[in-house]
Each structure stands twice: as C-alpha cells, then as structure tokens.
Amino acid sequence: MRSSSDPVGACDAVDRVTLPRVSSEDTDAGIQAATGLSGWPRRAVWRILLLLPAGVRVRLLRRREVLKFLIVGGTCFLVALVVNYALKLTVLAGKPVTALMFATIVSTVLSYILNREWTFRTRGGRERHHEAALFFGINAVATLITAAPLWIARYVFELRVPEVSRFVQEASDFTFGIVIGTLLATTFRLWAYRRWVFPQQNVRLVGSAPDRAA
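RE: above sequence
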C-alpha cells in the first residue's frame, strides 16, 4: 500500500528510474543535471518548474529530451510572440495571419539551430541536407497547423472587427493563434522530429566527457 506522505517516491517507484527526490530545494540542481543550463536560464526554468506538481517535475527531469524540447519551444514561442505583435501592430496591421506565419518562420529557423545542436544533439541518422529539408518541411506543415485555428476564428467564427469589439478580436487572436495553434504545432513537431528528422539515437555522440555526461 502506497504511503500518502511520499507522492514523489511513489512516482519514482512507478517509473522504475532512480532519481534524487525532487523538491523546492533540489529542483535547481536537477535542472542543471538534466539540461546543462547555468546562470539565469537555469534559474528561470527552475522557477517555472516549481509551479508544476511534484510528479510532473519528476517526469520532466527524467525525460531530458522532452524537457529540452519544451525549453526550446518556450524560447521560440517568446520570439514568435514578439515578432508577431511587432509586425501586426506596424507594417502588417491588416494582415494578422501573414504576421503570425512570418513570426513562425523566424522562430522555426532558431528552433532548428537549438534543437539540432542541443535538444537532439545525439540523434541523427540522415545526411545534413536531408535532415534540414525534412525539418523545414515538417515546420511548413506545423506553420499551417499554427495558423489554422486563427484562420477559423477570424473567418469562420468571424471573431474580428467590426463583428466584435477590438478587445474580443485580440483575445481571440491570442487564444486561437498563439496558444491553441502553438500547442497543436508543438505536439506535432515533437512527434515528427523523432519519427523522421532525427530518427536514430546516439549516432552523434561527441568525444568530450562533459558532453557525454549531459
């Protein structure tokens, strides 16, 4: 019978992976071990993880690849957010879908660099040009997935001025375009990267001990 006083220990037993107990005191060290991050990036991720239930933190710290992918995704999300609104409120004021798609393309280039060199750095199995072509092809599909909810909200549900207020339009754009679109596209990307872009594990192991340990 499982003790209610040790939920993290119970999670460890279920997953059968030996890990230090994760708490508000040692999550920071766990992040460093899982990602190799240091300084303010590590502290920022630590503060975010502390908002999650202990069991979720345990699972994320065990799944280093997924954790790194989410960190890269969060970084690229912020880049897309800034670029999207910078364009939408200036040169592309009347073209919200175009602004979102351009912002997505910019963040995708950054995503390829970070994912290849950090998240999936030990994965591979394809020629570099083939890998890049697949990556950007998958992200072309993901860009359409990102834009689809916004297009539906704007032109099917007609959540746009003058049918609705400016506030409702902006709230809808954020919810459907940034939140829902990004969530759907991120899920698709993780699956597709592992399936097609970086299909083989441990084929790009580097020679230095620190890299192997990370």
